[in-house]
Design goal:
The complex is a heterodimer of chains A (about 220) and B (about 80).
Chain A lengths: L2 E5 L6 H12 L4 E4 L10 E4 L19 H11 L4 E4 L1 H8 L6 E3 L7 E9 L13 E7 L3 E3 L2 H9 L3 E6 L18 E5 L5 E4 L17 H8 L1
Parallel strand pairs in A: 1-2, 1-3, 3-4, 4-11
Antiparallel strand pairs in A: 5-8, 6-7, 6-9, 9-10, 10-11
Helix pairs in contact in A: 1-5
Chain B lengths: L1 E8 L6 H12 L11 E7 L5 H16 L5 E7 L1
Antiparallel strand pairs in B: 1-2, 1-3
The chains are: A alpha/beta (about 220), B alpha+beta (about 80).
């Protein structure tokens, strides 16, 4: 089991992800600095949360042109599982590995709280289970947007990974924290090996953190 | 040459900042505001004086980095 966590200037969830992966899989991931242009053979690459490059221009835009990203794209296209969390999701969107866009929260406020999400798709290694999971969000630009055509495409190809819901798994307007289209909290690429999500599973990966229900997302890959 | 680039959210993308700005202007007593859309303005100084070449290059810059075409439109003007 070999995993890699990408580190940009401004990443701040990279170590949390590394601890979660170590606890779940028993192996410590390699941390890959953004200036590296190659990544060794990998079973999982995580693009972590944070504020890469200070969120200059648009969240994730500058990171999506950094040296390491071409290698992440190559690996993703070769089928290596890739997870982008929060700012990592924004980065994967900016690389076009994932469809749509993440815009300012509808409320215009930075939202930091626990939410519930549930898998909408059982055809990926990240969403094999079918239970509601509690984990935190912490973002200003997590409002998922896609054009009508793109939304139709991701629905037709079963690319919605997670939706915001209530504690009972009901997907409704009240449980949508940021105005995301169709309560979308995470999406997959067509091949289902690339996942992007706004909630932080690594911050809910042990019970002392308030929830260990985020572990599910990693377990399919790391077991 | 000085290039002036305007980047705005597409018409069908919600612009909550624009809405808040419109509300604030109304609160200040400005009347008759139908809507506000906000965006980015970028100036780029370029070598050379061939406007066609520069326009092509600037369009490419917008498409590759400066604008996110999923949600934003851009316009390029060269002085």
């Amino acid at each position: 089991m070999k995993s890699h966590v990408i580190v940009f200037p401004g990443s701040n969830c990279d170590r949390d992800v590394a601890v979660a992966i170590k606890n779940i899989s028993g192996s410590t991931p390699d941390m890959v600095w953004h200036k590296n242009t190659s990544i060794q053979e990998s079973d999982l690459i995580v693009v972590p949360g944070g504020f890469s490059y200070g969120d200059y221009l648009r969240c994730g835009a500058i990171a999506s042109t950094s040296p390491v990203i071409n290698e992440v794209i190559n690996k993703a296209k070769a089928g290596v599982p890739v997870i982008g969390i929060c700012n990592g999701f924004q980065i994967l969107i900016e690389t076009s590995l994932l469809d749509g866009a993440l815009i300012r929260n509808k409320t215009l406020s930075f939202i930091c709280k626990d939410v519930y999400i549930k898998p909408e798709n059982s055809s990926s290694i990240f969403t094999e289970y079918n239970s509601v999971a509690k984990m935190p969000i912490a973002h200003n630009e997590g409002n998922y947007f896609a054009s009508d055509d793109t939304l139709k495409k991701i629905k037709d190809h079963d690319q919605i990974a997670f939706k915001y819901c209530d504690a009972d798994g009901l997907v409704n307007e009240e449980s949508n924290p940021n105005g995301s289209l169709d309560n979308i909290a995470g999406i997959l690429n067509d091949r289902k090996n690339v996942l992007g999500l706004m909630p932080h599973p690594e911050r809910a990966a042990e019970i002392t953190l308030g929830s260990d229900q985020g572990k599910n997302i990693f377990e399919g890959v790391l077991r | 040459m000085l290039a002036k680039i305007h980047i705005t959210l597409k018409k069908d993308v919600l612009d909550p900042q624009g809405k808040v700005i419109a509300n604030s202007l109304s609160n200040l007593g400005f009347e008759g505001i139908q809507s506000v859309r906000q965006g980015k303005y970028i100036e780029i100084m370029l070598d050379g004086n061939d406007k066609n070449t520069a326009t092509n290059k600037l369009n490419e810059m917008c498409e590759k980095l400066l604008a996110n075409l999923v949600i934003e439109d851009y316009s390029v003007e060269i002085d």
